[in-house]
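In response to reviewer comment 3 from the previous cycle, which asked for concrete evidence that the modeling workflow produces usable outputs, we include below a single protein chain processed end to end. The sequence was submitted unchanged, and the resulting structure tokens are shown without manual editing.
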Amino acid sequence: MDTRILTKTQEKVLKVIRDYIHENHLPPTSAELAKILKMSPNGARDHVLALARKKVIRYTPGIARGIELLKSSTGIPILGSVPAGVPFYSQENIVETFEARKYLSGSDDVFGLYVRGDSMIDAGLATGDLVFIDPKEQVRKNRMVVALVEGEPTLKWYKQDGNIITLQPANKKYKPIVISKNDERFQIVGVVIAHLSSKDKLRLDSAMNKKKAS
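The workflow returned the following structure tokens.
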């Protein structure tokens, strides 16, 4: 069994830690974690130590708030919706991780993002599908990208003519976004290097859960 894969209980503990940090802007103490999880402080500490061994957190004993989240080395972080004005990639925005890094050839900074809406439906992407974005991949014409326009993420085909950028949807119902390359309201987050349908992800999640239980 791959010791890097988290058990369901460890996933729950990790989620509690992430939620606490997101809400309070600092990690929980062992006593606070134990209270939320409704277990003994020693039990909570055992789970923290297990997460540290699996390198999803860093734990410093003897410090009241000695827990630090780490980016998963085996799982690709998947981001939920990101509010305007918040840095796009942030540990606080991670809603889960997906154990697919070994199947992708991108950089260590690859992350996942769920598709919302139907603006890319003619490219085979629907709500609930998952796209993988590499912020270090070179942006080229006719590549699919995630961009920030006035702080909001959007998934579109990238086209450029001089200093004019066109973000082209794959649905005739929607108009392209045309913006200057130098516009401060515009930023390319990364290039889409792979995608996964919601049905395929459900099948992979089911297979992974069976592996965890074995």
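The chain has two domains: 8-69, 76-206. We consider this sufficient to address the reviewer's concern, and the full set will be provided in the supplementary archive.
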